[in-house]
Design brief:
The complex is a heterodimer. Chain A is mainly alpha-helical. In chain A, about 70% of the residues lie in helices and about 0% in strands. Chain A is globular and about 80 Å long. Chain A starts with 6 loop residues before the first helix and ends with a helix. In chain B, strand 4 and strand 5 form a beta hairpin. At the A-B interface, helix 7 and helix 8 of A face strand 4, helix 5, helix 6 and strand 8 of B.
Chain lengths: ~450, ~300
Amino acid sequence: MIQKKSPEEARKSFDLIFHDLTRSLRVKDELSRFWLFILIMFCIVGVWAWGYQIKEGLGITGMRDYVSWGMYISNFVFFVAVSLIGLLISSIMHLLKIHWAQPISRVAEQVAIAAVGLAGLIIVMDMGRPDRFLNVFLHGRFASPIIWDVTVITTYLFISLLLFYLPLIPDLALMRDRLKGKIPEIQYKIYKILAIGYRGNAQQFKIIYHSLRTLMLLIIPVGLAIHTVTSWLFAATLRPGWDTTIFGPYFVAGAFVAGTAAVIQVMYVYRVRYKLKNYFNDEVFDRMGKTLVFVCLVYLYFNINEFLVPGYKMKTAEGIHLTELFIGKSAPIFWFTQIGGLVLPILLLLVRYFRKPFPLTVIALVTLVASWFKRYIIVVPTLEHPFLPIQNVPEHFAHYSPTNPEITITLFAFFAALLIVTALAKLFPVITIWEYAEHHGVDKKIMFNEYEN
Amino acid sequence: MNKTNSRRNFLRMAGLTVTSSGIAASTAFLSSCNRIEAVDGEKIKLLTSSGELVEVDRTSLTPAEIPSLTENQKRGRSGLPGRKWVMVIDLARCRNARKCMEACQAHHQLRPEQHHMNVLQMKDAENTAPYYMPKPCMHCDNPPCTKVCPVNATFKREDGIVLIDNERCIGCRFCIAACPYSARVFNWLEPRDSDKYVGVTYNIEANVPQKKGTISKCLFSADRLRDGKLPSCVSACPNSVYWFGDQNEDAVTNGTTGETVSFSNLIRDNAGYTLLEELGTKPRVYYLPPKGRAFPYQGDVHTS
């Protein structure tokens, strides 16, 4: 795979790689501006809706005393799930030396940072008293799974930021040295500061390499913990549908499905927008398609366990819940998540044609949407069936239906996440330049030669 | 006059010291809100603890002893020493009069759809007669709700009561998800009559004033227990449904008749049970089965 090139060849090929991979920083056309405008506008509307919610109270949502967790918590679980892809691609696949995954590790980290950052924000938006957020630290009670969640999510965010930043340092140094005068002064300054004096010598590289290895190992337990603990927010209760022991691995498996599908979307956009056909090539998409099949199969296995075993027994309370899912009011969403989110990708992606970039992206989009509804189907129906009857309250207490401000705030999370991903793509190369070049026969000495002699 | 002045000065000095100490600043502010300002001969409107609006002549007013917020929260957390409160609900006697619900909502500043005490229509099986079941908080000895609270805003006291500190609650609603009895309510909107309670010091044992964005639930009227009274619902019942007392004394008193009997005998002789016993929550509220459902049952039964 790595063939040695002559210095001349290597230099030429590196110039091309550098040019291609910094294209995302230079693209400033109407479409980019329009996209940014849309994102920012929706974010402002979302923040305004949140302000309205703070003023009026959570009563402006569709949630009430029985269904007291709704779209926000579903969205929170979804974003935590998506963020787990950072762990799979940029840590596990790296440590296992799976080379085809190398060009997408930065995409995975972008998605992870945006998702986990938004997950943290969504949970504050769901609070009745966001002004008392600091109580979590002042009066934190370590027996509560929420405190575990706050702890691991914060840790995961910081490790993800470092896993994004450390491999970026040599790239920043390259941009600092090669792009002077070609980019706005302020952008150049940012690169210069962030490159923290990296010169490409062996010792500096060794520090980065070892720190990265440590972080890649460290993020494995933390990553598994964030989604396991998130699942315990439900599994720690006595309610039918949540009161199960497989929620931890069930959620982790589902997270890889959502994350893989999300990364495929971003990859496809970069491939088309930044003309990176040779980088996010058909092979990478093909492999990602196979990865999606694999994680879907694992998730399907957990779904069979989760629904078939209690469905076989139909214990009283569990039976009411499952009947509701299988043939009741929630059945359309339930079967959409099972078929659109699991059966469909597994069957279609076994065919080589569907693993080509465009068909794969469409299938993965369906899977991603199904993944969101999957969280909704985990959170809401269980709350609609408490142990004791719902009485002496208005009719709408018994059935959850989200309101417009609630949907606006939920959409805000998506636009804000896309805004973070867009900003990262506009500021930094979407593929690790030095690593990619090295894999294609360019020696690090050649990349940094101008400064070593 | 002189005496008043010196007291005033003393209070002012004390106030200054407290304020400068910083920690209790908010307390001083809140207790100052309780002082009643009025012109001579004027009648003053007051809101009683049972939620009634009354008029009182200014001259007949004496300053009430209201503990400061921090003191209130502190004693509210420890509970009444040596007590283990317990409630017995006799389902055979409930006729759905709903006086308990009304008294409760008035006492705890609840909106019509908020229930600390909720009388449910129950029907256990296809071939059994329906019955009414008043449902307060079970004040479990193994409470699922306090376990999950991230900020210790809901807690189990020494005397068995599960209480809420709505000055600390962050409104995450994890306790609602955790409670299998649906005993908890949330202030989704501005609480009932919130404008009437402006400046009233928070009484943790009644959870009044209620606050938007925080949790509320049945507290066994802990403020009334401190004053040696029975809980609002127990006192309000016209049909002798409720027995309330101290398990350490093994005695429960009927809220309607005032009769006091042995708690363990009552439970044993009438086959008393607790709700959803299999969940292991160990409730402090016991039910006596709805035997001899002689009264005509009115209304439709909803057992969804």
